[in-house]
Amino acid sequence: MKSRHSAYPFLDLRETTARQLDEIRRAVVRVVESGWYLNGPETKAFEAELAASCGAKGAVAVANGLDALRLTLRAWLERGMIHEGDEVAVAANTYIASILPITELKLTPLLIEPDPATMNIDWKELSRRATSRTKAVMAVHLYGNPAWDEEAQNLIADRGLLLIEDNAQAIGAIAPCPGLNGSDRTGNLGHAAAFSFYPTKNVGALGDAGAVVSNDEETLSVVRAIANYGSDRRYHNIFRGWNSRMDEIQAAVLRVKLRALEEDASRRGSVAHTYLDCIDNALVTLPAETPGSRHVWHQFVVRVDDRDRFRRYLADNGVGTDVHYAVPPHLQPCYACTLGSHGITEHLADTVVSLPIANIAREDALKISDIINAFK
Length: 376
Ligand SMILES: *Cc1c(COP(=O)(O)O)cnc(C)c1O
Hints:
The protein is an alpha/beta fold. Helix 2 (21-34) runs antiparallel to helix 9 (248-259), helix 3 (41-53) packs parallel to helix 9 and helix 10 (261-278) packs parallel to helix 13. 37% of the residues lie in helices and 13% in strands. The chain is globular. It starts with 12 loop residues before the first helix and ends with a helix. Strands 1-7-6-5-4-2-3 form a seven-stranded mixed sheet, with helices on both faces. Strands 8-9 form a two-stranded antiparallel ribbon.
């Protein structure tokens, strides 16, 4: 199902980069000529601009999104806010990168089935399954859809849970009601948030990059220390740290990309609404958008029982597709039989299909909708 020669490829990152090519070139050259490649002025400026974009106090730029999650959880362990063995609740249908840091740090993942309508964590199910060992929730805003509502707000407040957001797919999204900080921006709903700037994400670097965003200065400074060998000042190591830094070239490129965030969100929104308005086929279930929220459509995910035939039909008609994700974390060989079975998640994994969205024009979305409507 390669879409290299498709009329509507699933995603071609050259097109994404081309929209800002001159600015990106200038940013890269500026860093190359500056002689300053790590922990410099671009990273510092990007951290401030990223935090401002969701109204949070601060950010720490790190090497990738997975590290942003594991640095945050490690910082909370170091500070005694959570302890080995504590449960961290997370949606079972997330990407495996949400779960790897939980198990690596000897925390216990409490996998919660998603609500099939939102494809995000089912907060009612979480309130039934949470125990006294459940200390934190990782809210994954899957596909760009905010995993947040009043139920979530109440549950977290009532139980005094820590909230880490996995905002890898939802930069720029707005929740239907405020989070714990009074802000309704994803990335600023809880105690800390992880961002990914993997090239295919809505704000993508030219390589790996990530960030931790928080209003808690202490979390940020512990994350910053752990990401720099555990040192709080030169040659003084207070933690057995890691090396997880964003380089200056990526920070300079991301400053350019961040300026296009609103434009990108509205282009994706217009394509998504075209699909939602125009796709009308009983075999194809459309994704839901929560009233009062802004979904940023990292992926436009439909569900089709006969997925393979649907994908072949679209490929034959020049439409590239992808699947996010065909095998859920609990069925991966590395977790063989240790994370239970989750029927809703497994059914979603068998039926989800992602349509092209990143570089699609509204007219293309109309043609793709016509092609889908003719699928029998
Ligand atoms: C991409 C992604 C990550 C990991 O980010 P990387 O930068 O690739 O390490 C984590 N969680 C989710 C939901 C993601 O989509």
